[in-house]
Records
---
Amino acid sequence: MWHPTGGIVLISDPRVAATPLVDNSEPLVDVRGRLRVDERMADPEGAYAHLRQGILDRLERAERTLPDGYHLLIVEGHRTISSQRQIFDGYRAELAGRFPGLTPDELHSATSRYVSPVDVAPHTAGAAVDLTLCDPDGSEYDMGTAINDTPEQSGGLCYTAAPDLPEAARRHRKLLAAALEPVGLVNYPTEWWHWSYGDRYWAFTTGAPHALYGPTSL
């Protein structure tokens, strides 16, 4: 079934796109060697392992607050604009085939539960990170779903506050949030693994006067 979003503000919301942007020109920096990085989303250019300096600094602070036995595991940071467009168009086509009754606007919103439209995509700004928790050996903790499970694949359990989560997964998601929220990151509520800082969604969510990071490239 198509899982609706209730009161969640989607990243496709016109209010998000209307948020002013004043890019502070911080560089993209390599996460590797500073935090644990998984290679499942690796691209030939290595964009996946890069983030803006400001968000990486915050992630390092968050890492230091985790209890013994827990570490951040970075799965994907920066994403090229062409990759973002390909992912968005592919998922939209999948949903169109699965739910032929959706109007174009509904289809756009449904796609945006899982993939950001290119014009506001925080990954293309180096401002978003997909991440999870792992132990010192790199084994991932149970978070309820795999990273990048769609709402259809997960039965809606990819939503951060999904009501039917196993207790261990709920505890681990709260632990992740307890590390990331105090350093200023915000979660996209339909994806427990997606956190950002400095992008338009962050600015809209926090009430900041403008976003700090716009689309950039290596």
---
Amino acid sequence: MKTADAGVILDRTVQALRAHSLVVSVQADPPAQPEGPARTWLRVARGRGSGQYAVVVKRRLTQSSLGAVLAQLRQPVDAGQPPALLVTDHLSPQLAERLQASQQQFADAAGNAYLETASFLVLVRGRKPDAKEIALRASRGFSNNRLKVLFALIREPQLAAAPYRTIAAAANVALGSLPAVLAELQRDESLLVHQRQRRLNASKRLLDEWAQAYAVGLRGRTLSARHVAGNFARWPEWPLPSASLHWGGEPAAKLLGCDLQPGILTLYGDRLPARLATVGQLVAAGPADYQDLLELRKPFWGEAPAAATGPQTVPPALVYADLLATGHRQCCEAAQAVYESFLARDFPSR
């Protein structure tokens, strides 16, 4: 998210909190480390009671992106540091309820809030944004090209130092679009340049931001077909062409060792072979079908091995994002297990 957009969301949220008869003050500190983000603190008071929070601004939250956001907010807090406060443009009643159930405090620019201290409780749900917030909500976020390039770099961090043509091929984007995308990544410090050498500023924060943006944007465009699988329970035995189909989401998590029984099967590939359709007993799903589903999703990446580890799965970062996009508690727990087993070394919490 652009710094200017985050500032607008925070300013309007502060105004909305003050309308609840709260005394609100904002403090912005420089980054704790040269490569880290700037920190913003919010102090909220009512009467003699007060609470202090570390502000995390997110835009355009949806049911599919909430899991990634919660994963980021639940990173360990340094001793003595205040809890995270989620600040956003607008939360639907359903999202607000989920956040409260997860004990995640929040406030939005429309006036919805959940703040709980030892001295007071603020709980407001159901307020709708005005026209200004709607316009801000519709403004541009991560472009598809940026999502593709960032995924290529997350999948292979060493790719950041490669020539433009190599990066464009791995990300499946036009070579002419790459300089602008890399410049944007450099401006927000996702990509660092030292002595003309590029490297990815790899962290769990970057991974979670990509997962959230992927859930909101590109992921919806990858879905190409839905099928009901008559042989759903025996999916591990289905014959997959090794080069053209890879498990994602819940089945991929199971293959990677997670204790998760898939509720939806996700396959990334351009088409389903006739033999697989026969073995899986696949028929086209209708709008009312929600049981024993197989989703076919189009690969969006370019030249590079699709599976970075043993089983026939998409890269762990995409498995992680798919799991978080479901929003289901068991899937979010599996996403954390995938992170700890396959991603934590390269994308540490910090």
---
Amino acid sequence: MREDRNTKPAILAALAMIGIYAVQFVAARFSLREHLTATDLATLRFAGAGMVMLLVVWRNGRATGKALGWRRALTLAALAGLPYPIIINWGLTYAPAAHGAALCPASIVFFSFVLSRIATREKTSRQRTIGVAAIIAGLILFIAPVRTGGGMKDVLFGDLLFVGSGAMFATYAVLVRRWRVVPVAATATVVLLSCVPLPLLYFFAPSGLRAASVAEIASQIVIQGFLAGAAAMFLYTYIVRQLGSQAPSLFMPCVPIATVLIAMTVLGETPTGAQFAAVLIMAAGMAFSALSRPVPKPA
């Protein structure tokens, strides 16, 4: 009964996280094609998330940050804080939204699987291993149409940035699990530390904020900041605490499915037939892994 009480809220949290990430990728790609830069979106993300987290710190006091310590706080902020969305948004300037939505989650799955076994020595069932293998096969199939030459080199560069961001966030998830970090403390600390260098980005980084409309800026603050920057990070950390460092990553392959559908409608970006098949393979691998039973601990 205790496991059910932990599992059901975590699954609902995962569904909400999937929706947020799907909208985030499409919204970011839309503004990057119009006016805003990668650093603009990162600034808006943490400006919006910072507003939310200031209220949390105001309510909980300085104990929120003290619970982690400076070394751990800075490590988590470097992995899931300001550099993380900048790398993703940089990739979105070169590659379609569906690529980011496919490669980021798939990379998180792979690196979470590897790092969990190395760092935390978590036992993995054969079924989950097969599921992860299917996800990686789908990942390879997805990027297979990318050829060298012309604009395809730019797309490949963007894809590599997505893979790198996945490695960063997977490391964050493993450390959250290993250090037994409280979700609110992790989210608030990462967000507020990421807000510190924002004035430097605003004054010195290339920006298109002046060309963007108030509505576009406000919508990105809500989507990138309130939802992706604060809510999604809290949900991810909560799922890690409830189900383990690998569990949330197994839901992430659902993100490309939702993103592809939204991107086709909003952006007019249609993946190839092979990429559609790759998305389905990754989703099947996620389902197969999520349904696997945990390996019992030795008595």
---
Amino acid sequence: MKLEKLKHTDSGNFFLLAGPCVIEGEAMAMEIAEKIVQITDALQIPYVFKGSYRKANRSRLDSFTGIGDEKALKILRRVGETYQIPVVTDIHTADEARMAAQYVDVLQIPAFLCRQTDLLVAAAQTGRVVNIKKGQFLSPEAMKFAAQKVVDAGNDRVMITERGTTFGYQDLIVDYRGIPVMQKLGFPVVLDATHSLQKPNQDSGVTGGVPELIETIARAGVAVGVDGLFMETHPNPREAKSDGANMLPLDRLEGLLTRLVRIRQTINAFDKK
């Protein structure tokens, strides 16, 4: 993945997209970014800070959506400038693409919107890297059409993210066969180790999750050879304003990434034999 400000690209490690689900305030964003930068620099993991400036896909009308678009986007830009790292955020409509591109380095297409042609084309035309999350309803093979829309719009800076496939009404499952299938399309493939563990469509109107399996999902992805990992993390997931049920506590991130790097190093050494 070619991104300005992306360090440690020659380390042989997976790259990491990580941060809070949604920007709740500047202090929180800076705290998370500083901690992850320290960890990823020590482990030589290429790192992209993730934060949604607004959450458009919510179960209930009274769910938290954000602190204001411009305010949150300015915080994202400040994070990138302060720590000299690239930043990724979601967009939801074609009109948002140009606005968000002024503040961030990567535009992320939410899974539910991955077939929206106008959205993909608008993201492509900004020239930013476009990370397309695979819809829970799509096969890995079908993602070639979403990626091709971006390429045909004049932008080959594409990533594809696996985030689980619908398994009944209230569960997701990760089919790891899809990772090499999507890698054959010629784009980096990311595994979302937190949203893949969501429990959607709960009676409470709040999405559930099984965060105790984040390490299981991530280990398997690294073993399969995924190019990057996506994780949402928070100092106190129970107090997070969005997706707290499937986020990794920030104080557990260093240990997890250390173990994942060891798996990648072992695989790299084996592949050289």
